[in-house]
Design a protein that fits this description.
Length: 327
């Protein structure tokens, strides 16, 4: 018969295992670099047809956001997830751009966008900037597609000042988003621990960390070296780790699910929720809860993928999005 001491030992070991997994999968895409441990920051390669736009909000310093634009037709605005960048869309972007004017935006703190040392990294902070971007670019009848944290930002943008009630956003597609408090797997609460960035950076070099974390987010699938570098590159810029953890902690710190769900009643646009059945980061139950909170939502489930359908099942993701975008 197990003693209380044995149970305490087992519990301690479970916590230790969870700490390792949590550090590795925090946000699914954290690349293990700290500014202290990393080499000198290198500029990102300027291969894409990118642009920068400087946006100013009341009582906040201006922020320059990077974006890429492709194709022509009805506008699509793509918002990446936590720890990602415009690169996350590269496998499905050509198909989207064949029928649409596609704008992929790097959120504040990510990719090639500015990474200021402030605490304004919550979904509402990001949504205010995305709303300003839509107005500055004079986008109308735009469909917003957001993956993970970007899906949360998409929903909050529909409620943001200057956008709510205007018809600027026509439809919203949300892919595996932690849009309600406590939607993420519990071990991700470990991003609140102050030493995790240094711990990950000490244990794994950048490319190894990226490769390991991508495999975790894709259920063990081995990513290509091109994909590894695409996710690792932005984390060679100063401030990237700080911005990542500020964003991750803003997700974990939201607690009042009822209040957030009540806010979503104000999202009047049709919303397509796309979830991988095996998502370990934002489980499918979170998608069902979000569907219940939104007035005009439909939930579509993709089989055989985890948290990154744009890499794991790109054809199925495009097939799922297609009718929603064409309507």
């Amino acid at each position: 018969m197990a003693t209380h001491g044995d149970e305490r030992v087992r519990e301690r070991r479970r916590r230790q295992r969870a700490a390792v997994i949590g550090a590795a999968m925090a946000g699914a895409m954290l690349i293990g670099l700290s500014e202290r441990a990393a080499p000198a920051p290198e500029p990102l390669a300027a291969e894409a047809p990118g642009n920068r736009i400087t946006l100013a909000l009341p009582d906040s310093p201006p922020v320059a956001l990077y974006y890429e634009e492709y194709g022509s037709g009805p506008p699509l605005l793509l918002l990446h997830g936590l720890g990602e960048s415009t690169f996350t869309w590269h496998e499905i972007l050509p198909a989207l751009a064949a029928r649409h004017r596609v704008i992929a935006l790097d959120l504040k703190g990510f990719g090639r966008s500015d990474k200021p040392d402030d605490d304004a990294y919550s979904a509402d902070d990001q949504a205010a900037l995305v709303a300003r971007f839509i107005l500055e670019r004079d986008l109308r009848n735009v469909v917003v597609i957001g993956h993970s944290f970007g899906g949360t930002v998409a929903l909050r943008t529909a409620l943001a000042k200057g956008i709510a009630g205007t018809g600027r956003i026509r439809r919203i597609a949300v892919i595996g988003a932690p849009a309600l408090p406590r939607a993420t797997a519990r071990y991700l609460d470990l991003v609140m621990a102050p030493l995790i960035p240094d711990a990950v950076a000490t244990v794994l070099p950048a490319d190894a960390a990226a490769r390991f974390l991508l495999r975790e987010a894709m259920g063990g699938r081995v990513p290509s070296e091109h994909t590894v570098e695409g996710y690792a590159a932005p984390y060679r810029e100063r401030g990237a780790i700080r911005a990542f953890f500020a964003t991750a902690r803003s997700i974990i710190n939201e607690h009042d699910a009822d209040a957030v769900a009540a806010r979503y009643k104000g999202v009047k646009q049709p919303v397509l929720l796309v979830w991988c059945r095996k998502d370990p980061i934002v489980p499918l139950r979170a998608g069902r809860q979000l569907a219940a909170a939104l007035p005009r939502a439909r939930l579509a489930v993709i089989e055989g993928c985890h948290h990154l359908p744009q890499h794991e099942r790109p054809k199925q993701l495009l097939k799922t999005l297609g009718p929603f975008l064409r309507n």
